[in-house]
Amino acid sequence: MERLDKFLCDSGAGTRSQVKLLLKAGRVTVDGRVEKDNGKKIDPARQIVALDGEILGGKRRAVVMLNKPAGFVTATEDPVERTVMELLPDGMKHLDLKPVGRLDKATEGLLLFTNDGDLLHRLISPKKEVPKVYYARHEGTAGEEDVDAFAAGLTLRDGTVCLPAKLEPQGAGESLVTVYEGKYHQVRRMMASRNMTVLYLERRAEGCLTLGNLPRGQVRELTEDEIAALEAGM
Ligand code: URA
Known about the structure:
The chain is of the alpha+beta class. The chain has three domains: 2-55, RNA-binding S4 domain (Structural Genomics Hypothetical 15.5 Kd Protein In mrcA-pckA Intergenic Region, Chain A, Roll), CATH 3.10.290; 61-127 and 212-234, 2-Layer Sandwich (Alpha-Beta Plaits); 131-206, Alpha-L RNA-binding motif (Alpha-Beta Plaits), CATH 3.30.70.1560. It has helices at 4-10, 16-24, 117-124, 144-152, 186-193, 224-232; strands spanning 2-3, 28-30, 33-34, 41-42, 49-51, 54-55, 63-68, 98-99, 108-114, 132-138, 166-169, 174-179, 198-206, 209-210, 219-221. Strands 7, 8, 9, 10, 11, 12, 13, 14 and 15 form a nine-stranded mixed sheet that branches. Strands 3-2-5-6 form a four-stranded antiparallel sheet, with no helix packed on it. A hairpin with a 2-residue loop joins strand 2 (28-30) and strand 3. The longest helix has 9 residues, at 16-24. Uracil is lined by residues 103-104, 107, 185-188, 201.
């Protein structure tokens, strides 16, 4: 059982005070009958709540993909910087989404959000080995020795040991890097440990998901099939 006003907020009907006004105005029905009591207990699994005749769903599980532009920090709030939360449309604000892992302020590309805490932890756990593919433009050119060093598991300049990773040179000053964990500035530090300073970084894939044709700065919600495929790969 859940309070009616909380259910309405979770469904995106508005803030607590806006919801109170909607109820007072007689715009909310429970099982077809107008309900004005905001503290009324309802059972979302059995009862049908509607606003202006439109049935509400409560807070459903959601996974959202953002094509992150540079210039935004991955945090739910920040006193100075613009955060990735600002890129979520208003219609998604009530879903209480959290970023999955982190992309640096300068890094672009695929960033997931979810309100499913369990899924979030599985996606960022190194034990699950979810592959993340990055495109890097960098100083120098990657060679066979670099590829082997990545495959063996690099030791960073501060002594941090990384899991084996994949380096695929794409010609002069360009590489694809696949990692299975998410240490702080991981790809930049891995490349730096091989004397290849990263100049540009974009995450192109996470698990079975790719950016596809999602424009930079835009978001889209994953389908249930995509979520199932993501989970099947873990
Ligand atoms: N590795 C990095 O160095 N930066 C990112 O944003 C992601 C991975």
